[in-house]
Amino acid sequence: MTPPMIVALLLTVATLLGGVRLLLWHRAAGPYASPMRLALLLALQVIAAALLYLALFPPAASGEASSLRVATAGASRLTVASGGAALILLPEAPAIGGGEAVPDLATALRRHPGVTSLTVLGNGLTARDLEAARGLTLHFDPPPLRPGILDLAPPGPVAPGARFTAGATLTGLPRAAVELIDPAGRVTDMGAPDRDGHVLLAGTARAAGATTFTLRVRQDGRVIEQADVPLWVADSARPKLLILAGAPGAEVKTLRRWASDAGYDVTTRMSAGGGVELGDAPIALDAASLRRFDVAIVDDRSLAGARAALLAAVRGGMGLVLRAGGPIDGATRGQWQALGFVLTGPGDITPLALPKADAEAIGRTRHGIGNAEIPVDIATPEDYLPDVSRLTLTPGGADAVPLLRDAGGATIAAWRALGSGRVALFTGIDSYALTLTGRRDRHDDWWTAMLATVARAAPGDHVMTDTGWVGERMTLCGLSGEGRVDGQIRVLPVGGCGGYWPTRPGWHMLRGREGAGAFHVQPAGALPVMRAARNRQALSLLPAGDARMASVAPPDRPGVAWPWWLVWFAVSALLWGLERGRLGRRAGADQSAM
Fold first, then answer.
1. What is the structure's pLDDT at 2?
2. Verdict on whether the full-model pTM lies above 0.85
């Protein structure tokens, strides 16, 4: 039994004994006893016992709900606690006098139970604290973002020697110049943001493995911000490419050489007329033979003889790029339209609009170091534009996706799905001329984009492109069991995902039962504008409205005892006076008592 129960039992027994005593006295007094006085004495005894129990064990007062002011990164150092709300300092918040430092929001809520409202100061809560803030009423008025990089979109895995594109979004920098710098410190591309702040920059991957480019933002002659652009160059299996041409020519020769340099396992078949076939070892153009290829490039004169087998292979997953060797006839146009493309235009030949050549320094960086076959002077773009043409056809359709456009905005390539594969239509003619005038980068861009879009998907390296920072929790998914980061840090997944707190920037490797995956971590102070924008967006997505429950049920506070003691003393004094005094006694009872 607890002490309150023991005291309650003793007081009950004492009250019962006192009541029996009063009843015996009332019976002995006979006609001189006053029933009113007896009832009053019995009631006062019960009240006195109850008041004594409440004085010894005063009722606990229920806890009251409260609010907290939570300082995050970007909060003003002049912030002070106000309105009775405690000021909480999260690890990323600046040092503020009078604030209570905590490792996370959950710790603050445990120290201050009963919280139903949070006032967030600064840039907002990080992913670490979002779950703890659910169910609470949030008040958040973020400060304006400072100029800088609002978003960074690093490229996915690329093959050695392939071109890649990195994107960024700027805020508050309308006159900025953005540069992409390779690991050797050379500017590989530069550009200016559009009216919405978006900019796309291109670079060339070199050797396989993990590398890091740099995105640098300048305005008015000074560096505003720079950030790492991670790039994973995957040394994957060589995809198999089939090139079918109705006749030998410079276009086929250039395509074969480019594809071999780009890492494709190339098979070429060209018709020389009279049943003579040139190129590699002859292959049967049937569904069984074509199934081993990942992608095929077929011109208009070769399509008719192998159309059924090619389409069967595409429906099985192979990619197909259709090109024209010159003006097309009505039969070819009908065959292309039968694949689901809507062709607008007469189908004649017209010059293809090309963009201006890059600056010499950027052009040299993109083309790389010259060699015996392609010296530096040949690899450098010429001042004049090459003679490249296109069909006056615009490929489109309800389910066709534009893939390439020329400098004038005309669509020169589009693709659409066909069964399990994809088919693309390219209207450019004599693209080999680009390589003869130092425009190998443009030629590489076109054919890399087309083949990478339609080729059969092959298993490759798993690379996570989500941006993470040192000291901030990252979520690593795709794990069916325990994993290890860099062979040292254990990651225990729940539902296929586990948490990891990086301590150093750069590339890391996660290894598990499924294989290995790479991911990059930004330094703690990198991309502050992007980090602030992400935090405030995540906080704004939390459910709004009044909180339905407190963070933790507020504990009861010990009650105040002295009011109960005062009332008990007053009732006890009244009971003593009524029992010892003459109030309520009859005259005869007083004389008999004398």
1. 84
2. no
